[in-house]
Amino acid sequence: LDAAMVRRAQSGQDHSHSPLSHRNSSGKRYDYLIVGAGFAGSVLAERLASDGGKRVLLCDRRPHIGGNAYDFHDASGILVHKYGPHIFHTNSDAIFSYLSRFTAWRSYEHRVLADVAGTLLPIPINRTTLNGLYGLDLRNDVQAAAFLASRAENLEAIISSKDVVVATVGSDLYRAFFEGYTRKQWGLDPSELDKSVTARIPTRTDTDDRYFQDSIQAMPLHGYTRMFENILDHDNIDILLEAEFSDVRKDYKAAHTIFTGPIDEYYGYRFGALPYRSLQFQHETHDKRRVQPVGVINYPSEEIPYTRITEYKHLTGQVHPKTSVSYEFACAEGDPYYPIPRPENQALFKRYEQLANASPNVTFVGRLGTYKYYNMDQVVGQALATYRRLQAVTSDEKVA
Ligand code: FAD
């Protein structure tokens, strides 16, 4: 399967069930075998092939490229994200300009509302949220900050996620927005979760209702999959889809492996499995142009089984008489999505990392390879840095 075939196969519809094989690559030798065609694997494949002049074999167990950022046109022709909404945002001009070689963009600022007992309120919490929830008329930052301070609780130590929220906004807002949502999302009470989980959610005293505040916020104009097709469109890159690393490694030889799958899987789970939270998505198409006012509505109540609903046309800007949404359900079993941020899990990861440090012929990159929640731009940054490191090692070897 050459890059052109990948392009044809991926555009237009979901090919989850169509077998894809590879162009005549058997018997070829490669400089690099890259496992995983998400951001980490694809960016490294592109850099190694086009900048480094290396021959690369890229494999993925899924029937498509793009990893979790994969998007496709559903049966009604609406562009949807198979693994949940992916919004690109970054403060790095370098990362944005690298990706801009492979896609044009549409400007998009993400907005999220939370459904609190039937009322839709902005999240992250801002002044509009406070006024809406409490029936107040806070007019400026000073008044909003004073109100939050009057609600915030004095805690001796901030250890868990719950502590972070209660110390910033108090128990009321904690219960309305975080408690149920976090329990559903993680299967754990916020008091059992590392403070880093909610440290990512800011609280605002102004009326800025954008979900992100990064200097660059945009979506690939023709979608993520098209961007990945362009990233991987190089003669030095061969792609194997529906291909497990354990099978590929038997048939193809490469001097070095780059592994962007789960690090514990690579080492046969010898110290035990690293815990992940998984997700399930229920996609639906409605015979209407729009069903919700913003791209994502969160459902914090534990009485509602899903965590959020995404309406993709807000994100993609697509004009279409119908609209598609996905309901997101968090669960324990399934594909690994979110590393569960607890100290004992980090300790277990460190044991695997020690094995990795002693394995010179394999490099671990990406969200699963380094057991850390990264946004897409961070994974691109990590992959570009890894490429520079690999280049430095190669030139040291040449000197030696
Ligand atoms: P992945 O995209 O997961 O790619 C890894 C690939 O490796 C997979 O395709 C997998 O099939 C393959 N693989 C693994 N093991 C093997 C094996 N043994 N053999 C063959 N193939 C294998 N980031 C943002 O910046 N903005 C967002 O809005 C955003 N939303 C998100 C929403 C959800 C629901 C999730 C889960 C993540 C979101 N992210 C978002 C994060 C984003 O998905 C990641 O940063 C990015 O996908 C990581 O890329 P990756 O290459 O490390 O991993």
What would you note in describing this structure?
The protein has 400 residues and is α/β, with parallel strands linked by helices. The protein folds into 2 domains: 3-107 and 220-273 and 339-399, Rossmann fold (3-Layer(aba) Sandwich), CATH 3.40.50; 112-199, no CATH class. It is built from 14 helices and 17 strands. It has helices spanning 3-10, 39-51, 93-99, 127-134, 141-151, 161-186, 196-199, 224-231, 245-251, 263-266, 312-316, 343-357, 366-369, 376-399; strands at residues 29-35, 56-60, 71-73, 79-81, 88-90, 105-107, 112-116, 119-123, 216-220, 237-241, 253-259, 276-286, 296-298, 308-311, 323-331, 338-339, 362-364. The strands form 4 sheets. A 7-stranded mixed sheet has the order 8-7-13-14-15-12-16. A hairpin with a 5-residue loop joins β3 (71-73) and β4 (79-81). The radius of gyration is 22 Å and the shape is globular. The chain starts with a helix and ends with a helix. Flavin-adenine dinucleotide (FAD) binds at residues 35-41, 59-62, 67-69, 83-87, 244-245, 260-261, 265, 279, 337, 366-368, 374-377, 379.
